[in-house]
């Protein structure tokens, strides 16, 4: 069975706005798979999982698991699954139920990460710049550099 990673309807506009289309854009991600992988990692960092309540059927259409694998995100999907379940059998390559569960967990982490991004990016014009600020803060949460100016406090 070919599994697909879905996007919740209430996050569809955000996901579309994060996709780079053409040269004249400030959107940071080249594919939907990249957006969802980033969101899943963010959701995992903040221990935020949120089930898909109503999936989008059109744009962004569900992304085939093969695309995630071809982009090297299969390890991320497996890592999130083992982290969430703490069960080694979730990694079984021959169990279709285990694969379905891995995809479901990945969707939940991605949806949780998208919820975080919705709040962080609200009102932002340049998503790339804002994501860079977010990543800098995530990497150095206690660093208070007097030379840097964080515009997020005004949002």
UniProtKB/TrEMBL annotation:
<protein>
    <submittedName>
        <fullName>DNA phosphorothioation-associated protein 4</fullName>
    </submittedName>
</protein>
<dbReference type="InterPro" id="IPR023983">
    <property type="entry name" value="DNA_S_mod_dnd_assoc_4"/>
</dbReference>
């Amino acid at each position: 069975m070919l599994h697909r990673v879905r996007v919740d309807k209430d996050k569809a506009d955000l996901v579309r706005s994060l996709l780079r289309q053409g040269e004249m854009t400030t959107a940071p991600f080249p594919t939907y798979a990249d957006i969802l992988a980033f969101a899943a990692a963010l959701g995992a960092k903040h221990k935020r999982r949120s089930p898909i309540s109503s999936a989008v059927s059109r744009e962004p259409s569900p992304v085939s698991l093969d695309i995630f694998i071809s982009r090297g995100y299969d390890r991320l999907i497996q890592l999130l699954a083992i982290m969430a379940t703490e069960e080694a059998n979730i990694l079984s390559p021959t169990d279709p139920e285990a694969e379905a569960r891995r995809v479901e967990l990945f969707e939940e982490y991605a949806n949780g990460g998208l919820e975080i991004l919705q709040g962080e990016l609200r009102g932002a014009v340049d998503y790339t710049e804002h994501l860079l600020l977010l990543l800098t803060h995530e990497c150095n949460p206690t660093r208070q550099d007097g030379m840097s100016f964080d515009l997020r406090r005004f949002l």
